[in-house]
């Protein structure tokens, strides 16, 4: 490469400058590319410690309702069951061993799985901490969602946290609580409790969520001087029949499994990913179809098929969904829907990658089965499967290996 930095070209750029530039990169692909330029650039910049995103998991004995547990861990979906420590040398805040959410690259941490007295948001890259008040009602630890990134200039001061607190271990009934920076306490929703949340997304000033038994709810978060507080639920619809028709489930051998709402990466479209079972050659596969949602104020829900996500992929789990570009995150593949099995049941696989173009599914093995393939007879299956997947976690910046 010639002509960028004096007579020596780009290869003569100072090492400290290269290190500073690489530290500001936002995509894993850029980090990989910078290491392919020349030997000087490789030795002057830190390599990736692990490509993003990761599966977050916990053990069955500690996963109570929506809390992942005090032994939560992060794993590469592929790669022989490699565990990731994303703290870059600094441990999370002391006294907060329970994780109860992974929103927008943050970890929501609690001091107990029942009636926690401390709730803290912690961001592993910047080490930023945001203390939140405890929930006003005794009960299980909640799952935390964020309407925006607290560190992003565009989100401050308008972001808010939403906590979904279950009433039972199974999380069958849950209540939403809303909190804004500066509030002394959480404010509960006005409406009656809802069923367990399957997915959630923020789009266009609204908080969308799907719950078990196929209801889609929308809360209006647009807050101005005259806006009501807490945010009201403004729309609800039963999506089962719409999804049934859109996926042609009248065909023999198909049945609905789940519906997840996702905000597209471009911020323009709101998507609904519908998962269903399909019988194929004496086996049952999970298949996904994606639809663009149109939900005008005075109209019924309209679903338009999306057959090509471009360079993007959707990552679905318990609660938060991600829309990431495979061009920026080489660990995932384009035009795929990734689904983490989060039903608290043991599986030999813990995620499914569904190819929208080929209409085919790939099972991603549980990490305990990616190397030695233990059998049911040797007694390892039940013990190994005590590590159960929960959702996805994606650091806001590349995870570098420290030299």
Provide an overview of this structure.
About 10% of the residues lie in helices and about 40% in strands. With about 400 residues, it is mainly beta. The protein folds into two domains: about 45 residues, no CATH class; about 350 residues, Neuraminidase. Strands 9, 10, 11, 12 and 13 form a five-stranded antiparallel β-sheet that branches. The protein has a five-stranded mixed β-sheet with strand order 17-16-15-14-23. A five-stranded mixed β-sheet has the order 24-22-25-26-27, with no helix packed on it. Strand 26 and strand 27 form a beta hairpin. The longest helix is centred in the N-terminal third of the chain and has 9 residues. The radius of gyration is 22 Å and the shape is globular. The N terminus is likely disordered.
Nearest-integer average pLDDT: 81
Count of structural domains: 2
Can you tell me the CATH topology of the largest domain?
Neuraminidase
Total helical elements: 5
**Beta-strand segment tally:** 29
Give the N-terminus to C-terminus distance in angstroms: 26 Å
The biggest sheet, with number of strands, parallel, antiparallel or mixed sense and barrel status, is: 5 strands, antiparallel
Q: Given the helix and strand composition, which structural class is it?
A: mainly beta
* Overall radius of gyration: 22 Å
CATH class of the largest domain: Mainly Beta
Strand content: 35-45%
Pfam families: Beta-prop_KIB1-4
Protein name: KIB1-4 beta-propeller domain-containing protein
Domain KIB1-4 beta-propeller: 96-343
